[in-house]
Amino acid sequence: MADDEQPAGAADERRRKLARLRERGDVAFPTRFDEREEIATLHERFDGLEAGAEAPGAHRVAGRVMSRREHGKLAFLTIKDGSGHLQLFASLEALGAEAYERLLDVDIGDFVGAEGTVLKTRRGELSLRPTAWQFLSKALRPLPEKFHGLTDVETRYRRRYLDTIVNDSSRAVFVKRARIIAAIRDFLDERGFVEVETPILQPLYGGAMARPFVTHHNELKRDLYLRIAVELYLKRCIIGGLDRVYEIGRNFRNEGVSFKHNPEFTMLETYEAYVDYNYVMTMVEALVGTAALAVGGLTTSFRGHEIDLRPPWPRITMRQAILDATGIDIAAAELREVSGLHNAIKARGLEATVPLEPTWGMQVDELFSVTVEPHLIQPVFITEYPLELSPFAKKTPHDPRFVERFEGFIGGMESSNAFSELNDADDQRERFVAQLAAFAAGDEEAHQLDEDFLEAMEHGMPPTGGMGMGIDRLIMVLTDSASIRDVILFPQLRG
Q: In the predicted model, what is the mean pLDDT of residues 74-103?
């Protein structure tokens, strides 16, 4: 039976029970249950009880019924709230015949509230012996089979509410996600950054090289784009005198899906005036460490690897990384044209795994992605990217074909991307024009020319270090989650 399939007649029987409940005059869906204690609080206070002991006083708990069994004049129900599980040790003697009989009509998935005394059973399980109880909500559909849980991956993603009900490990991921994001915010706030909000619907998409989603605004009579990045708006803030800004929010890219790609994802972008990308590297190390400490420590497991997040992380140029992996020196004079790079790839027998690309920059990126990136398991910064791939970064002083850009890698994935931001408006215009030529040649991910941003830049922009970080990928690493869809509550799926 599939995880989401109901046994024949199960829903009808639950509705019959709901009708009987109402016929008795019970309130099936009351509005509140006052003076409730969280289950975790009871565990903190009373887990130290000796087996067979009972604590003084009455306590009130509430939660969803996750299991139940009967044994003569006793009934054992496990309930679950947002903080944990607790057994209800119900007896005919303590409840009385009428309340006990009503309790036997409870289904798995129903919500109940109970009041009684806390005890440790002879087997050492903390329990509550109810002296009174009430329905709080009737579940009209059964949960997935309790012993096997929700195992079908597609169902887990499509019906996340079932996943977080029956799989405590899934729920824990999203609790950790919230803590990680809170820690990141605290880290940046303490450093004097100002959190801002920029448009999600944009008249011109920009700030990254990706295909956008497009929509139409009826009143304005114009097409708008879901943002692919927030970079150009945050730079406007820097130009406007906000020296440290950041935004955590959703971006949207009309691209394929994989274990590390989702069309809708959460991104952190930061911009700080008067610093360069070297400064940003040290900030990224500290930020990731702060996020890791919020949910564990500076070492973590991910995809079977032990990851050590302690700084400093190695800094390796892209040229050196490719040279070490393939023996190809992309900076060599004979490889400065794409044809020479193609010849070098073929000479080393790599053309079967490294697709041949039409431009030098794209070919360097493909060579790196195939031969280097999957092996970057421990944290590392790869620096000095091709100019062609980096329209917003300053050129390196020693070679104008490369720019002051780094990408941080953890677990074989890019996790952050940063530049010494270009602040020369004329140079920026030339980069935009080059990107337009690439777009006309068929590169659907090439950047668009943004005249409004250029006008803002012409008013003067200070030296700036900017950074983007994929929050979902960071959370994957810190929670040992195999897929980005495991850390997004409601991921996009095929129809």
A: 96
Distance of CA 283 to the CA centre of its chain: 21
* Domain match, 133 and 274 both: no
User: How far is CA 257 from its chain centroid?
Assistant: 15
How is residue 178 written in tokens? Answer: 């919230």
Token pair recorded at residue 30: 């009351």
DSSP character for 238? H
| Nearest to 198, CA basis, from 241, 245, 243, 263 | 245
Q: Is the pLDDT of residue 461 over 60?
A: yes
Tell me the residue range of the domain where 401 lies.
Answer: 166-314+378-486
Do 88 and 38 have their domain in common? Answer: yes
So what's the pLDDT on residue 341?
97
| Shared domain check, 230 and 115 | no
Residue 217 lies in a domain: yes
Cβ proximity of 118 and 46 under 8 Å: yes
307 and 453, same domain (yes or no) = yes
* Number of domain units in the chain: 2
- DSSP, collapsed to helix, strand or coil, labels residue 476 as helix
Q: How far apart are CA 130 and CA 333, in angstroms?
A: 82
How far apart are the C-alpha atoms of 214 and 252, rounded to whole Å?
10
Nearest in space to 171 (alpha carbons), one of 304, 66, 35 = 66
Is omega for the bond preceding 312 within 30 degrees of 0, making it cis? yes
Quote the CA–CA distance of 47 and 74 in Å, as a whole number.
22
Is 355 contained in some domain?
no
Domain boundary among 143, 176, 206: 143
Beta bridge partners of 250: 266
Helix, coil or strand: residue 240: coil
| 447 confidence band (pLDDT: 50, 70, 90) | confident
Whose CA is closest to 69, among 90, 49, 54?
A: 90
User: Does residue 459 fall inside a structural domain?
Assistant: yes
Q: Are 416 and 284 in contact (CB under 8 A)?
A: yes
Q: How confident is the model at residue 2, as a pLDDT? A: 42
Q: How far apart are CA 352 and CA 363, in angstroms?
A: 14
Q: Say if CB 34 and CB 192 are below 8 A apart.
A: no
Q: Are residues 205 and 61 in the same domain?
A: no
> How many CA atoms does the CB half-sphere of 298 hold within 13 Å?
12
Whether residues 58 and 176 fall in one domain: no
Last residue of a domain, one of 143, 177, 199: 143
Contact 42, 60 (CB under 8 A): no
Distant-in-sequence, close-in-space partners of 134: CB < 8 Å, separation ≥ 6: 26, 27, 30, 33, 112, 113, 114
Rounded to two decimals, the pTM is 0.92
Any idea what the CATH number is for the domain that residue 386 is in? 3.30.930.10
pLDDT at 336 > cutoff 80: yes
Same domain? For 282 and 234 the reply is: yes
